[in-house]
Each structure stands twice: as structure tokens, then as C-alpha cells.
Amino acid sequence: MSSLKASIQQxxxxxxQACLLSGRKPEEILLVAVTKTVPAxxxxxALGEGLTLFGENYIQEAEDKITTLRQGDWHxxxxxQSRKAxxxxxxxxxxxxxxxxxxxxxxxxxxxxxxxxxxxLIQINEAEEANKSGxxxxxxxxxxxxxxxxxxxxxxxxxxxxxxxxxxxxxxxWFRSLFRLRQEWHRRFPRIDLSQLSMGMxxxxxxxxxxxxxxxxxxxxxxxxxx
Length: 227
Known about the structure:
By secondary structure, this protein is α/β, with parallel strands linked by helices. It has helices spanning 3-22, 40-48, 59-69, 85-91, 101-114, 140-146, 172-188, 205-210, 220-223, and strands at residues 30-34, 53-56, 73-76, 94-98, 118-123, 153-159, 196-198, 215-218.
């Protein structure tokens, strides 16, 4: 058995166990295999093992892999500058890192030009860490209020990268907080789809699933430490 096959099986087992403990179904959870710095041939191997959804952080790196492989479904999970929205929109099925009305307007403009409806998640910087992208929770209602003006942009939910701590339990309050914010904003904006919660990575995705995640972003646990 290859090391990648063994890692995929282990991650799937962890996901299934987390669902069992939290009374959820594994099919409720989308596993995004994070492939930053992972070569195309290794991704091809992952495709052969049944992984179909991949996450990339950089436009050029992603474009090279997507055009080489011509397979899979791809999410953009890195910081997206407005000037690069034009490049991102044809490549990805979802942008998980919408973090400002300015970026939303540009995604909408560029998506309209090619006749595509772009699915997005709003990236929330709950801890307001200076070194991380994301919108402050206080600014989200204004973004949601403006969103009907963006016909080519479809909000699907929220994403968060909590402050890193090797203890996964330290992530739990942030995941729980995002779930509650989602509930609050859903009550205020019932016509906006906030069904997806992207939260949890290699070391803490079980806790994220227990707290309501529908998407988990896993790289190291699948592909090993990055070079």
C-alpha cells in the first residue's frame, strides 16, 4: 500500500469516527484535499484513490495543475487580491476566501463577463489577527445587505482559520462561535444561503465536525509536511 493511500484511508477513518461521535453522516462533510506545493503527479495518484475535491492557495500554481490534470473539482482557499479575480473565476468552482465588499464586486463583475455564477464563502477573521485575511464579524451584516446587488456571485456560507494551536481543543471555541454567528446571520438574512461552514484542518478537523463543519481542509494529514 502506498503511503498516500494509507494516509487517505486514515483521514477517512478519522472523519467517519468524528461523524459517529457527533451523530452526523460522513456524506454531510466535504473533504478538501489541500494541495499547495503538492506536484501534479501526486494529485493524480490521489484522484486514483477517490479524492475529487482539491484546495489551492495560489493562482499560478493552481492554474498549472488544473490545466495539466484536467480532472477534479477545485476550491480557492488562499488570499485573493481583487486584481486576480479575473484569473481565479474560470479555474475554481468555489472561492472560500471572500473578505470584502470590494472583492465581491470584482468577482461579480468578472463572473458576469464570462457568464458564470461564482460560489463563495465569506472568510471570517474571528480573532482579528493582523497576519490573516478575513473580514471582521462586525462588518459581515453590511456585506450581506449589499449582496443582492451581485447577481453573478452566490454566497454559500462561511469559512474561518482560527488562531493556530497544536491542541485541537483550543480551536473549539472559535468553531462554536462561527456556528452561532451563522445562526444569527441566517435569522437576519433568511434568503441568503449560509449552509456551508468551512472550518477545521489536519490537526483539528474532528473538533470542527463536532461543532458543525460541512467542509474540512486537510493537507498535511494527506500529503505530509510541505517541503
